[in-house]
Amino acid sequence: MNEQTAGNETRHAVWVAYGTGGVVGSIREGDDGWTVTMAGADRAGGTYPSMEVAKAALHSAMTPGSEWPRFEQH
């Protein structure tokens, strides 16, 4: 996992997904997998066993016909 430790706190990486119209969602790395949250959603859409599966899940939740988003780590 891609973790950073600050004091007693462990921080996991976050990737933001950008579509043609801006931010479409994010993927957060956690102890139990990779959690997808779509932009504007009240809660996470699901947790997946790998980053590649999470990326595919995020893309499939976008408007049909959307191009593959650009992912940037934050």
Taking the alpha carbons of the first and last residues, their distance comes to: 15 Å
**How many distinct domains?**
1
Q: What portion of residues is helical?
A: 10-25%
Q: How many runs of DSSP E, i.e. beta strands? A: 7
Number of helices: 1
Record the strand order, biggest sheet.
6-5-4-3-7
Q: Judging from the principal axes of the Cα atoms, what is the shape?
A: globular
Tell me about the largest β-sheet: 5 strands, antiparallel
Radius of gyration: 13 Å
Element order: H for helix, E for strand: EEEEEEHE
Low-pLDDT segments: none
Q: Can you give me a brief rundown of this structure?
A:
The protein has 1 helix and 7 strands, in the order ββββββαβ. The protein starts with a strand and ends with a strand.
